[in-house]
Structure formats: C-alpha cells, structure tokens
Amino acid sequence: MEEERLVTQVTPKSEDFSRWYLDLIRRTELADYAPMKGMMVIRPYGYAIWENIQRLLDERIKASGHVNAYFPLFIPEGFLRKEMEHLQGFAPEVAWVTQGGADELEERLAVRPTSEAIIGFMYSKWVKSWRDLPVLINQWANVVRWEKVTRPFLRTTEFLWQEGHTVHETYDEAQAETLRILDMYRQFVETELAIPVLYGRKTEQEKFAGALATYAIEALMSDGKALQMGTSHNLGQHFARVFNIRFEDHNQSLQYAWQTSWGVSTRLIGALVMAHGDDSGLVFPPAVAPFQVVIIPISIGNWKENTLPRAVELRSRLERVGIRVFLDDRSEYTPGWKFSEWEMRGVPLRLEIGPRDVKNNQAVAVRRDNKEKLIVSLDGVEAKIKGILDGIQASLFDKALAFQKENTCQVSSYQEFKSVIENKRGFVQAFWCGSEECEARIKEETMATIRVIPLEEEKNQKGKCIFCQKEAGTLAVFARSY
Amino acid sequence: MEEERLVTQVTPKSEDFSRWYLDLIRRTELADYAPMKGMMVIRPYGYAIWENIQRLLDERIKASGHVNAYFPLFIPEGFLRKEMEHLQGFAPEVAWVTQGGADELEERLAVRPTSEAIIGFMYSKWVKSWRDLPVLINQWANVVRWEKVTRPFLRTTEFLWQEGHTVHETYDEAQAETLRILDMYRQFVETELAIPVLYGRKTEQEKFAGALATYAIEALMSDGKALQMGTSHNLGQHFARVFNIRFEDHNQSLQYAWQTSWGVSTRLIGALVMAHGDDSGLVFPPAVAPFQVVIIPISIGNWKENTLPRAVELRSRLERVGIRVFLDDRSEYTPGWKFSEWEMRGVPLRLEIGPRDVKNNQAVAVRRDNKEKLIVSLDGVEAKIKGILDGIQASLFDKALAFQKENTCQVSSYQEFKSVIENKRGFVQAFWCGSEECEARIKEETMATIRVIPLEEEKNQKGKCIFCQKEAGTLAVFARSY
Fold it and tell me: Are residues A337 and A467 in the same domain?
C-alpha cells in the first residue's frame, strides 16, 4: 500500500486521480492503513456501506434459494496440493500458519485465499444422493491473499467477501446457476450501486484457477480504467473429481457432481468511490449510503431553542419511514464547515433549517450529485424526500451509463486500438482471433486486457483479429484495468 | 475435538450428556467436524441461528449508540509483546503466520485471538481530543485460539464473535459502559435465548489478561454445569498506556484514555442446545429458531391436489406476518418420519394438515416444548400462531429459571460444598475470604471455580470462608463449568 501521509486536504481528482482516491478514503474516514503490509482498517463510515451491501445482496442471495454457512479459515496444505492447478494459481498469494501456540505444525495451514478446497472436502461427506442436490450455500467471510501491490478496498492482503459454492446434478444446471448469479450481480450493482456493467466470459488466461469457465461483471471507473466487480465460475466436475463428490443419480448409478462458485468483495466500496466521486469528494447512491440525509440546523441566534427542536422532529419523521439520517447538531463547527464536510463525505441530500425555514415550515434541500437547491415544505416531507432520493439514485446511474457509452468504442485497426487505449481509455471493442499469443502481445504492448467476451457476442460475429489480422469470430472488450 | 463417528441415532441425554450433545449437533446438521484439529463447519441450520443472534444483538448494540467496523485479522508479534500480561495470557493459544507466499516473514503475525492490541494501536491514531470521545465501536469477526481440548460451539480453534472496544474520558464512564453492556447481554440472553443468567464480577484469577475488572453472565446448563455466556471488561488505562492513547481534555491537558471491551460468541449456540434440549432432541426458543413453524401436510389420498395447496397458502399467510416457516412437502418421506425429524431439529411448533383439517378449515398444532396438541382454526391463524410462539418463548424461560432456582443453593460447610458439587452440581453460593490460595485449592479439590461475585453481593456481606474459615466479605457463586 502506498506510504502513509497526513491528509488534511484532498488532492483534486482532475489533478491526480490515484492520489485523490487515496486522500479521499482517509480524509472521509472510510478506511485507514493498518501497520501491516497491505492491510487496512475499515472504519465505521466505510463499514456502514459494507453492511448495506451485505443486507441488500444477502436478500437477493436468499430469495434465489441459497442459505448461508461458515467454513474454517484454515486449509491444510495437502488439500490445496490435491488440486495442482488451483494451488499453482494461489500459492504465491498464500499466508501460511506454521505454528500453533508453542508447537510447530506438522502440516502448514493456508489462511484461505478462497474456499473451494475445504468446501469441496465437506461436500464429499454431505452429498450422497440426488436427494441431497442441489446444494446452494453461501458464506460471508474474510480471505487473505499475499498481494505485492495493494490499494485500499481494490486490492488488500485481507478482504471481506461472500463466496457462493453450489453443487448440481448436471452441467446444464451448473451453467444455469453460473449465469443466474452473474445476472443477480449485474442487477444488484446496477440497481443498488448505480454502476452500469458489461458482463460476459473471461478468456482462458483470465479465468479462475480450476474453473471450466469464468464469467464477470466489469465497470468503467471515472478515469477510464475498468474494474472487475464480481465473478461467477462454472467449476465443471473439476473439484468433484479431486475431492470425490459423487452422488447416486435417479438410476442408482454414481456420478461426479457439477459445481459453481461466485463472489463479490469489499472492492465494491472502492468502485463506489471511483465511479461516482468528484472534485468535492465522495458521492454515494442513496441505496447504500451510510446516511441518506444530513440535517444541518443553522446555528445563529437562539438556534438550540428555536431551530434544533424542528431539526430533531424532522429527523424522527424521516427515520420513521426508514430513511437513514444524521443530524449534525455539534456546536463546535459552523454550518459552512459542515456543508463542505458532508459534501466531501458524499451524503446524497443535505437539509438546512434556519430561522426563516422554521417560520415558513420548510427546509432547504441540496442534492449532492448536481448541487441543485430546492425548498421543501415540511408538509408531507417524508414522501418528498423519498422521491428526491429515488431521483438521485436514478440520476447517478444515468450519468454513469452515459459516461460508459461515451467511453466505449469499436476499433478496427491496431493503430486506432493503441491510440484509444493510450489517450482516451475506456472499453474498446475489437475482434480477436482467440489465440493466447495475440492476447499476451496486446497486453504487453498496451497494458490492455480482455475484460469480457460479451455473452451475446459469443456467436455469429465475423471480423479480423485486431492484432494478427486473421479471421476472428469473437468481438472482445478490452481495457486497462485495476 | 472428539473423534468422528457416523451418527445415525442420538444417544439419550439421560444416558450420556456429553455424547448426546455431540451426536445431536451432527445429526441435526447444526455443525460438522472439519478435517483440522479443533475446527468445525457451521452448517446452514446452525448458521441460521447465528444470523438470528447477530441480527437481534446488533440491533441492541446499535440502539445503544455503537457502530460497527472491521480491523485486520493479523497482529504483528511486537504489538502483543508491548503488553506482556496480555501476551502471556494469550501466547499459548496463538496461531502464527510465518510465511507469506514464498517469503519468510521478518516478524511473525498472530492470527487474532482477540483484538485489543491492533485496535489500541489504531485508536492511538484516531483519538486526539475530548471531541473524539467516546469511541463506541463493535466488530463482528472470526478469532483463533489454539485450544488443546475442543468441543463444537463451546470451545473451537476458530470461532465467530462480536467484540466491542470503547474509549472514554473517565473511569466512571468506562465503568458505566462496562456494566451497561453486561446488562445488555443479560437482557439479550434472557429475552431472545430464553436462558436465565447470573451476572457479576470475575475474580482476579479468572479475569481477562490486561483488564482492571471482568464482568460476566453465567448460565446453568441442564447437566448442572455452568457456562460463561459473555464477558464485559473494564480495561482501565492499561492498553491506553501501552499504545499511547491520549487525548487533550477540556482543560487542554493530555490524559490517557479509559477503555472497555466485551464479547459474545458462537458458544451461545452450544448454550441453546444444552439449556433447552431433551431426549427427543433440540428445543429452540422461537426468537432465534431457524424455523419457528414447520408445516407437514398429511400425505394420504390425493394430498398434492387437496391438502398441499392449503399448506402452501398457510405458509404464505404466516410468512407475510414475519414468521419463519418451513413447509416439508417432500414425498419421499412419511409424515411420521417428518414429525420426529423436526422434533429432533427443535422447531418450536409443528402444524399438521390432513384431509379432515382441510374440511374443517383448521390445522393441528403441536408444541415442541411440552408436546401439547391443539386444534387451531385457520380464521385469524396468524395472530394465534404468534400467540402460541410467544407462549413457548415464555415457557422455555420459566422452565430454565425454575431449573436454575432448584439448582442453586447456599452452603456453609466445605463438606456440604463438596457434596453438592459432586452429586447435585448447579450454582453453589458460599463465602470466600478473597485469597487466591483458597480459590485455587477449592478448584483443585472439587473442580469448581468461582463463576461470579454477584454485583449486589459485593458489599455488606459477612460470613466465614468456606475453605479457610476466616472472616469473609464475599458471597461468591461456585460451579463446575465448561
């Protein structure tokens, strides 16, 4: 993680995007650096977003028939070794426990980088018959990957995530689950985070170690780089063969089971910062904002006697209809200071109440996203505020979608490809012959990778590979990425 | 953890309590053994209870002004070393990470056994002024303690818990917080888990390594042994001095801060099993039961056409008012099998619907706790079921309280003390002079420890120490414990 420094002022986004991101996260108390390499502390303001993400995504996970469970943090090395492709994919990133109390362990324990191996072993004990299928289990947990280059939320040694692990009777059922989850992620991210995504299949190079196929949702951050927001893997029978997950089918014959796994992580919080933030700071969509409304009483005259009681009453009214409100009644700060503080912290809507507003039974509402100011009568204020919040949620998505469209183009020459990637960035659609060599050379020369092969593009496309000019049946989406 | 064996039948509780506990947990799929020493998998049926506990306790934690955050899993050894008392308390139980990827680490990292050290360090960065206080932060997390003897839920190498860590300006505020949390735990456990507790202070021997004073809630399990259900520590300025948590007070002078920490864990699930379970299996209080109601359609005749639709409708009606319902419509099992299966799994209320019930617009309700059977008309069934569930919750508490009272006695001779501890068990109140030696000798000779010194007993008591016969001002509560 970058070296620590005291953040008093946030570097403007237009000046240095990367510095702006790091400054903002610490200045707004979303997170802080921990004193260990690549680790962070998620502070209450940041964790509140994760709680909202958890609640909203968990509802969707359960509504689609899944249940939660908890598997161990440690995985014996032998379990990872059973599956060499998987071990090789993760070995450089594993933190190893070698001592318990005063004793050296006979076998090293991996701190889970992901849980396919330990869950596969347990499933082999639980799955015996078609009656036991499907198994639809999800886990909310911490995982550890010993990363070389880290950045708060985007890539940290430890992060929080959910990982779904399912078992099915047939390939078709596993594939349907893989795509159902991909679509659940797309809907969740677009609806709740107000971030539009592209979705599709990853190439063989980019897929998960041990998967048959990996699917992902990808979004464009406001610096034109792509961020992988979530993945859904069809694991085929790979882990079932390694861990011997077999069931008696309807014809009393033993079959290896078919599996999927899928996850999203605290990285989504970084995406919110980078997709919606501006020079004044964070901009959170109301659906996941820690506070949706901040009420600031104008502290002049006898404000504690005259204005504050109305602010308190307003808070109660809004909270009663489920709106998350913070009333900033601190007397050691001025209203002006509070305005810019909460602007920087990205609260979707500010409500100011001063003596004149009390007299007129109103509040002044200021939207964070477009700074629009409007007078709101306190009669039926609950419905009005809900309406404004819904409007902000929709606007943020529309704005991000317009940005994505502006920054997505199709190119037909490598010259053009390189120029767009270098100067404009964004998603670049280009034909690709499917060879690993072209993919690797493009990455080497431009730092752009294939983010996804869109599902609808997988068939019936014809063109020439942007790199080798050979016949190509795949219109892939390239970008530089985090 | 005890060796694995296939559980087809559960050992009766009256025959072997310990075997009954282990059999029941695996047979009802609350948890399973993991293939690593002392670790378990919390299966969906068990994890659903933890989710209910989390939701209900988190509401109370937040209602009292606390917010959640997330601190790192790893703690550098040097941080633990800074506080020798704390390190010595936990060193034998620490799992150490010594390798990251291919590299040996320069400094070992402890997998957190508890988080005072890392949180103390972060607080020293965040707390500068009285304006920053109080800090009222809680964390839901996994922790690891390398235990020698383990038992699912009660003592496992890894467990899930919440740990609150607060910072205050004065001793009085920290002490008030410590006792406020103790009372929050008491209310939570008695109200939601239907388990009555004793509460009070721990002795110096039994207190948390590094605390000024530890307070605990203790409950009696149905075998007469005590279980510590939660602890709340007044940490004094101990960690503040070690980690240099200082603030500028109202007079611009620098002061060390006062702290508390407190936690409950997945051990509470074990308590539910041991406090309420009987020879027929688990008995869950409705407030935290995974399913509060199981509906079993009687599968005779054209049940799928005639009975099942009414069962489906009943499920919807109950779910609409927030009742957690499972409709067991599997055709591969008989109603009789389902009755005993769900009885064993502890669902508070069973609703049977057969052809006659369809005709009479009714269901047969059977309470799990007392096996009482009653006919319930489907007119206004929602309110009736809610009423029955409330009744079950109250009955379970009353029954457990009666048990606790029957099994609590005051003794005045060491002879009597030993006899009760050996034969009847339960809570034994006895005067204690306060010396560590008497405490240690009693433990050695009887395996009984001082569970708590009740708060109201701390003053104005006079008697003779049960062991040494010297003047004693403390009426302590002894028990054998888990």
Answer: no
Q: What is the ipTM of this complex?
A: 0.96
Q: Distance from B407 to chain A by nearest Cα, in Å?
A: 36
Same domain, B302 and B258: no
My answer on whether B171 and B211 are in the same domain is: yes
* Residue contact A98–B96, C-beta within 8 A: yes
Same domain, A379 and A434: no
Q: Which of B1, B42, B55, B73 to mutate to test the interface with A (most CBs of A within 10 A)?
A: B73
Provide the pLDDT for residue A459. 62
**Domain span at residue B475?**
408-479
Please count the structural domains in chain B: 3
Same-domain pairing of B363 and B324? yes
Residue A286 lies in a domain: no
- Whether residue B241 is found in the same domain as residue B152: yes
Which residue out of B33, B45, B74 would a mutagenesis test of the A interface target, given it has the greatest number of A Cβ atoms within 10 Å? B74
Final residue belonging to a domain, choices A356, A388, A420? A388
Nearest to A97 among B96, B118, B160 (CB): B96
Mutate to test the interface with A, among B81, B96, B131, B162 (most CBs of A within 10 A): B96
Angle of helix A308-320 versus helix A381-406 axis, rounded to 10: 70
Mean pLDDT of A257-280: 97
Residue A7: pLDDT band (50, 70, 90) is low
Q: Which positions in chain A touch B138 (Cβ < 8 Å)?
A: none
CB contact (8 A) between residue A97 and residue B102? no
* A67 interaction partners in chain B (CB closer than 8 Å): 44, 47-48
Of A251, A276, A301, the domain-final residue:
A276
Query: Could you tell me how many CB contacts below 8 A there are between chain A and chain B?
Result: 147
pLDDT band at A87 (very low <50, low <70, confident <90, very high): confident
Interchain CB distance below 8 Å, A44 and B97: no
Q: What percent of chain B has pLDDT over 90?
A: 91
- A2 pLDDT more than 50: no
| pLDDT grade for B479, boundaries at 50, 70 and 90 | very high
Residue B366 β-bridge partners: B350, B373
| Residues A348 and A413 reside in one and the same domain | no
Whether residue B214 is found in the same domain as residue B107: yes
Task: Compute the Cα dihedral for A470, A471, A475, A476 and give only its sign.
Answer: negative
Average pLDDT of chain A is 95
B42 contact residues in A (CB cutoff 8 A): 69-70
**pTM of the complete model:** 0.96
Model confidence at A461: pLDDT above 80: no
Check CB contact under 8 Å for A72 and B158.
yes
With contacts defined as CB-CB under 8 Å, which chain A residues touch B100? 37, 94-96, 146
CB B228 within 8 A of CB B219: no
Pick from A75-84, A108-117, A450-459 the range whose average pLDDT is largest. A108-117
pLDDT over 70 percentage in chain A: 97
